[in-house]
Amino acid sequence: MSDNYRSREERRRAMNDNKPEGKSQGKPKKKKKGGLFRKIVAAVLLIGIIGLIAGVGTFFAMISDAPKVDDSVLKNSFSSKVYANDGKTVVKEIGAQKRTYVQYDEIPQVVKNAFIATEDVRFYKHHGVDFYRIGGALMANFKNGFGAEGGSTITQQVVKNSFLSPKKTVKRKVQEMWLAYQLERKYSKQQILEMYLNKIYFASGEVYGIERAAEKFYGVKSVKDLTLDEAAMLAGLPKAPTTYNPVTNPENATKRRNTVLNLMAKNGFITQAEADKAKQVDVQAHLAKQTESTSKYDVFIDQVIEEVKKKTDADPFSAGLEIYTTLDTNAQDYVDDVMNNKVVNFPNDKFQAGLVVVDNETGGIQAIGGGRNRVSGGLNFATNMRRQPGSTIKPILDYGPAIENLKWSTGQPLKDEEYHYSNGTPIRNFGRNYKGWVSAREALGRSLNIPALKAFQATGADKAKEFATGLGLKLDEEDGEAYSESYSIGGFRTGVTPLQMAGAYSAFANEGMYNAPHTVTKVKFPDGTEIDLTPKPKRAMQDYTAFMMTDMMKSVVNESYGTARAVRTPGLEIAGKTGTSNFSAADKQRYNIPDAGEKDVWFNGFTPNYTISVWTGYETPKDGYILSPNETGMAKNIFKHVITHISEGKPKGSFKQPDSVVERSVEKPTGKDLKRPSGSTPSSLITKEYFVRGTAPTKVSQTFVKKEKEEKKEDKKENKKEKKDNKDVKPKITASYSGGAISVNWSASNAASDTTFTVTMSSPNGSEQLASGAGAGGKTISNPAPGATYSFTVTTNTGESASSSVKVPDSSDQATEDDSTKPEDDGTTDDNQNEDNSNTDQNNGSDQGDDSSTQPDDNQNNNNGNNNGSNNGGNNSGNTDNNNNDSGNANDGNSGNNSNNGGTTTPPADNGGSDSGSQTPQTPATPSTPVTPATPQQEPTTEN
User: Fold this and answer.
1) 376 labelled catalytic
2) How far is residue 821 from each of residues 26, 787, 814, 894, measured CA to CA in Å?
3) Which of 29, 399, 588, 717 has its CA 20 to 30 A from that of 12?
């Protein structure tokens, strides 16, 4: 069976191999290909039908709840309520009270053309929806994200502002297109354009509708009186009413007006020559004087309106909204008082100020000081005015980025020295001097420019810009010029606003979290739709950067070298930075401004709860310049008053040190590296600084250890030398008895001026110290004990010593001597004795030289009692503690004179001046042993 099977298989294979190839394989393949194509076509058709059904179903589902086109809504407006931050107090109701309705035929063609060229050039060609424009918008949204650009026609804008919420969703867009189509079926193009021009918002102060705008900006009685350049300006405003306001932002307004003129020429509404001629007109040339005064909270509400329009596209004047804000009425009322001269004394009426108060935790704006003597729609110095920030930019562009990216400490050493920008341009400090090595803390506190530039360069321009962008500052993008190193010290062309600076500084107080400053928290629409407009917080910097920068800015306020000591407030922990900017050389010359005149003065400061940015100055150089102390200190003065008021009755809080930061003691900078202090470092050169954990220095400074070693080595060398010198000092002391008293004298050969002597005496009564002090000297021991031996020792401070002793004769020997020599009383003894004493005193004075100055002796009082008991009647008992160095050398003939010196109590009688030398000494008193100093030697006071 197997052989048969195999032969059959072979036969079948052979038969198949011999069949024609085309017939056996071509037909099946063709069959398969045709079947697959039909299946693909059928599937596509089926999907298309399903998609169409689904699309139509979705479309009708989306428009099913669309509002009806209501004539009353189109022609009437509904006021909006603005609530304070308590969510209950209505601070204002804004609406249509300041509108003037104008008919289509009353609107000049130049105005119609300007708006059509700008907002909807195909207005007369489409039926409510311009699919060409939608295509362009889709491309923009594809590149930049959904909502980046709208394709709305004028018709759609009327629908959106009248019937729909501002949510940018597909459903709202579909409803907008559907209602636009319905509106075009019901109204003519002329009626729709009329609605649009009467509903549109132009400026703060409730400037609503083209007729009202013409009157507000140009003072014309009718819109018919507008010129080409004026019509172009008004047509450019609705896109951004504040940004392009010709009163407050003439540069931006000029650019926008010229853009509209170009569009009109491009689309054939005017010729290029007409456009160029209109461009030559100054944008402020025909503006009417703004005289309408503001009402309560208008400055704050202007910002509210701006935010609502920007974030929702809704018109607060006609949409019937409920707007919930961050307004603190207590803070705003006080700020208004400040601006109205009720709290501080402004130097003059033209002096201006702008300030913003922000809650650190939420970013909510509590109050706005828009300026002094403001008119409705006028320049807001807090939110619209941009000025150079001066040194207030240093925490943002210099030190903050360095801590964030390089992990600098607050004590980072920086050398303040002669320096220049990278392009070679010199940079100087305000005081035109240099401090040498300083810490980053001190450099900021003193507002030194050179260390700030070095910090900026160390981090790099790109990193610094990135840091600033995270704090809401879009430097060169808004400034209109190339970003450069001059930004590091505030050298902007146009600058920043207090609103921006308050937002940026609040992030330092909020542990590095940035909340964009805002006035609106949520909006409710008439249909019940509610939109949360609170910005989401984002991390702008690490917590260590925020804390360390805050602590550095506390030094600006608290340290003796700080530039903002004036804002210190008891009970409040305050950090901040001052800043000033100067006029250009051209302005100084043109307006005769002195070199010391300043253009802008700022103070940006914060507590743990609030941040306040204050700008002061003049609107234009011709209005004035800042010079007096009252003017230069006004920004700090305003800050102090406002922060004190808004902090009353509220927890003060404190800046908390994060775990990422450590505090260490270091030596004050003397070079590029910080080091820990050694045991030899003077306390005055030790300071405490903050470090990012893990970066604190570990090396101990050897600076003062080396100095101490060198000093010890030098001292040792000096001591060795002194020892050698002192070996040559040979003290000597002599003691002799004569006339009932012992005279002791001491001195030393080769004695230095600082050689001191200590003299001691041993007697039957014990040992005692006679004298101690500098210089040679002597003492007299009155009434020594008869028959006793007195020993004396002198010791110098170098350790050398010498001794001497004397034996007093016994009483019997003294009596015999006295009896044999007792003189007769011839009545001349006293006179001659006085004469001898006088001569002795003169000799003593000449011998002692500089040592003869008189000082009271400590022993004088002790001797008075003994002197009163003398046998001589006490002629010399009143003498001072004088000493005769020659007393120890007296011979028998003049021993009486010598013994009288120093007021001794037992002088012998004088023999009338005889040269024979014979004297009869008197008998001494009882054997008491008081110590009477000689004349005129003194005992200097020394420290032991």
Assistant:
1) no
2) 178, 21, 11, 14
3) 29
Helix count and strand count (H, E) for the chain: 30, 28
pLDDT recorded at residue 460 = 96
CA gap 519, 370 in Å, rounded: 14
Beta strand spans in 848-910 (E): none
Q: Determine which helix (DSSP H) or strand (DSSP E) holds 807, and give its type and residue range.
A: strand 801-807
From residue 428, give the alpha-carbon distance in Å to each of 142, 198, 414, 418: 49, 57, 15, 7
Residue 747's pLDDT is: 86
Residue pLDDT, tens place only, 580-615: 999 999 999 999 999 999 999 999 999 999 999 999
Position 710 scores a pLDDT of 67
Question: How far is Cα 9 from Cα 15, in angstroms, rounded to an integer?
Answer: 10
Kindly calculate the radius of gyration of the chain based on its CA atoms and give it in whole angstroms: 52
Annotated catalytic residue, options 77, 80, 119, 804? 119
Peptide bond into 936 cis (omega under 30): yes
Question: Would you say 180 and 196 are in contact if contact means Cβ atoms under 8 Å apart?
Answer: no
Q: Which residue has the higher pLDDT, 246 or 76?
A: 246
Across the range 388-403, mean pLDDT stands at: 97
Looking only at the bridges linking them, the beta strands covering 661-667 and 610-617 are unpaired
Alpha carbon distances (Å) from 524 to 83, 319, 810: 11, 10, 126
pLDDT tens digits, one per residue of 35-75: 777 778 777 887 877 777 766 666 666 666 666 776 666 76
Residue 330 has pLDDT above 80, yes or no: yes
DSSP at 387: B
Q: Are 658 and 547 in contact (CB under 8 A)?
A: yes
Residues 879, 860: Cα–Cα separation, whole Å:
9
Say how many CA atoms lie within 13 Å of 886 toward its Cβ. 15
Burial class (CB in 10 A: 0-12, 13-18, 19+), 26: exposed
Give the three-state DSSP class for 906.
coil
pLDDT digits (tens, 9 = 90+) for 172-216: 677 778 888 888 888 899 988 988 898 888 877 667 789 888 988
Q: Strand 322-325 to strand 80-83: parallel, antiparallel, or no bridges (unpaired)?
A: parallel
Give the pair of three-digit tokens for residue 671.
Answer: 């070079």
Q: Which tokens belong to 563?
A: 């530039």
SS3 688: strand
Residue 242's Cβ-count burial label (10 Å; 0-12, 13-18, 19+) is buried
8 Å CB contact between 253 and 245: yes
Do the Cβ atoms of 359 and 610 come closer than 8 Å?
Answer: yes
**Ramachandran angles phi, psi of 731, nearest 5°:** -75, 155
Highest mean pLDDT among 4-8, 429-433, 771-775: 429-433
Comparing C-alpha atoms, which of 157, 205, 202, 169 is closest to residue 304? 205
The structure tokens listed for 54 are 């689904």
Amino acid at 211: E
Q: For residues 489 and 456, give the distance between their C-alpha atoms in angstroms, rounded to a whole number.
A: 9
- CB–CB of 745/732 below 8 Å? no
Residue 822 has pLDDT above 50, yes or no: no
The answer to whether residue 119 is catalytic is: yes
Residue 707: strand, helix, or coil: helix
Strand partners, 375: 293
3-state helix/strand/coil string of 108-161 = CHHHHHHHHHHHCCCCCCCCCCCHHHHHHHHHHHHHHCCCCCCCCCHHHHHHHH
Among residues 380, 339, 618, which one has the least CA distance to residue 519? 380
Among 878, 926, 921, smallest CA distance to 903 is for 878
Confidence of residue 8 (pLDDT cuts 50, 70, 90): low
CB atoms near residue 57 (< 10 Å)? 10
- Identify the active-site residue in 80, 391, 555, 581: 391
Exposure string of 278-309, with b = 16+ CB inside 10 Å and e = fewer, is beebebeebbeebeeebeebbbbbbbbbbbbb
